[in-house]
Amino acid sequence: MSGAHAHGSAVDSLFVEAESAVHGLAPEAKLVALVGFVVAAALTPRTSVWAFGVYAVAIWLVVFVSHVPVRVVLRRLAVIVPFVIFAVLIPFIGGGEQTQVLGVSLSVDGLWAMWNILAKASIGATASIVLSATTRVPDVLTGLTRLRVPRVLVAIIAFMMRYLDLLVRQLGRMRTSMTARCHDPRWLWQVKPIASSAGALFVRSYERGERVHQAMLARGYTGTMPTLDRRPATAVDWSRAASLPLVAVVTLIVAVVL
Amino acid sequence: MSCAPLSVSQLRFTYPGEHHAALDGIDLEVTAGERVALLGPNGSGKTTFVMHLNGLLELQNGAITIGDLVMSEDNLREIRRRVGAVFQDADDQLFMPTVRDDVAFGPANLGVAGDELDRLVVETLERVGAGALIDRSPHHLSGGEKRRVAIATVLSMSPHLLVLDEPTSGLDPAGRRELIDLLVSLPQTQMIVTHDLPFALQICPRSVIISGGRVVADGPTRELLADTALLAQHRLELPFGFDPTRV
Would you list which residues of chain A are within 8 Å, Cβ to Cβ, of chain B? Predict the structure, then answer.
């Protein structure tokens, strides 16, 4: 058994320790706010450029209130890079009306599509980053339970989060032991050991599943997860969390009506 | 009928599809407050035996009595409350997102809820010296901490009998010593499966050796460990230089 404080734990690595109004909010309020905000942003017509300005200002205000360092948010925004690359290609390959930018012919429709993807992806991602940086995974799970997400579903997510790390570490140990015996795969025909280690990992996980189930039975589990609920969201939590999606929904309505 | 915390008679068990009996007629009685070490080589049937005490394997032959309750489908719930089983790999035992939820899992299944549950969780963690870990997630704990919390997850169900499977495995010497201090301080009757013979000698006045699915020896730990022929016969070995008669 190694390591007291496992480094790079996949589960809590996203959480940024800080004291802030955002950290203190009840998780279910934050979840609802996130979904509301992202949906409003996604429904906004792409031509209402100013509306996206409002969303950006709103979510970045939340970032500042949350005391999550700006560079952390920017670094994590890297997850949208694949979308960005794809989006940037669209004006070059798009058809229809063309416009000249620095002597290159670009599709007008494509430019709008690019803008649409960039704006919505970055706003949605920033909002998700704020949630994950200010809410611990167990709290997110509690929030989901309080939002009446089926208990079985929450339990599945909880088990996945609990055992993902263990699985990744096990895989790491298997790779180390392969490397230690000079396994250095470069070509497709060298894939066999990797395939068999995936198989071994599956069997081990299955066995662990059995053992965990027995440990649960031994403590009186009869098929339903017990409710372990504590401080639910207060009216203050809800009203504070509502401010973000409220701004977004008002903006959306104005953008659609205008 | 006796009211010993644990009484086992003529327990036999064969895994489906196998010819050899994993347990071949075990008789054992444990009196209240005893700490008994269960010794034996790998494959001797120790774990199979432990699984029976909690009704995790269905009784095929023989009888198990926990206090005044006979092992049966109807009594399973109460038996699982009375027998706290701590498994070898703490990662199997700790499956909830936080230490708090894990310790609450058992009592919550028994219907404890609200403030009473909260208080119980805090008290139990204090009892094992892990009060500060309450809001941590299990994968951030050291081996010794995991073991303490694993014990807390069953203590919170107020068991009469604690069954621990290889509790010292994977612990560093300090973690092992802290575990010993904890176990000695608990009032529950304890049955400890272990390969760690010095550990057995240190905390269990009585030992039972299981080999080939039978009880082959049952007596004071010091006497059993001094019997080198007996140990050798059942693939048990003391660490180099360790003399049980001089400890």
Answer: 1, 3-6, 9, 11-12, 136-138, 141, 158-159, 161-163, 165-166, 208, 211-212, 214-222, 226-228, 230
Domain count for chain B, please give it: 1
> Which structural domain range is residue B70 located in?
6-246
Question: Which chain B residue is nearest to residue A161, measuring alpha carbons?
Answer: B97
Task: Inspect the interface and report whether the beta carbons of A208 and B51 lie closer than 8 Å.
Answer: no
| Cβ of residue B81 closer than 8 Å to a chain A Cβ | yes
Contacts of B100 in chain A (CB under 8 A): 228
- Closest partner residue to A215 (CB to CB) among B87, B143, B145 is B87
The residue of chain A nearest to residue B113, with distances taken between CA atoms, is A228
A116 and A97 share one domain: yes
From A230, which residue of chain B is nearest by alpha-carbon distance? B114
pLDDT, tens only, B59-101: 999 999 999 999 999 999 999 999 999 998 999 999 998 899 9
Based on the fold, state whether residues A130 and A73 are members of the same structural domain: yes
Whether residues A110 and A190 share a domain: the answer is no
B177 found inside a domain: yes
Instruction: Indicate whether B1 belongs to any domain.
Output: no
Write out chain A residues lying below 8 Å of B79, CB-based: none
Q: What is the span of the domain harbouring residue A51? A: 21-136+232-257
Describe the strand order of the beta sheet including B23-30 as a list of residue ranges: B23-30, B6-13, B61-66, B69-70
Domain identity same for A27 and A148: no
Tokens of A84: 């960005």
**What pLDDT sits at residue A193?**
77
Co-location of A172 and A67 in the same domain: no
In this complex, how many residue pairs, one in chain A and one in chain B, have their CB atoms less than 8 Å apart? 100
Q: Does the beta-carbon distance from A228 to B117 stay under 8 Å?
A: yes
User: pLDDT digit string (tens) for A199-254?
Assistant: 888 898 899 999 999 999 999 888 777 877 666 778 888 888 888 888 888 888 88
A165 alpha carbon, distance to own chain's centre: 17
What does the pLDDT look like over B152-203, one tens digit per residue?
999 999 999 999 999 998 899 999 999 999 999 999 999 999 999 999 999 9
Following DSSP, what letter does each residue of B134-168 receive, concatenated?
TTS-GGGS-HHHHHHHHHHHHHTT--SEEEEESTT
**Degrees to nearest 5, angle at CA B179 with B30 and B118:** 90
Asked if the Cβ–Cβ distance from A217 to B113 is below 8 Å, we say: no
CB contact under 8 A, B91 and A166: yes
Verify that A127 and A202 share a domain, yes or no.
no
- Output b/e per residue, A126-163; b: 16+ Cβ within 10 A: bbbbbbbbbbbbbbbbbbbbbeeeeeeebbebbeebbb
B163 token code pair: 């069954």
Is residue A96 in some structural domain?
yes
Q: Is the residue at B142 inside a domain?
A: yes
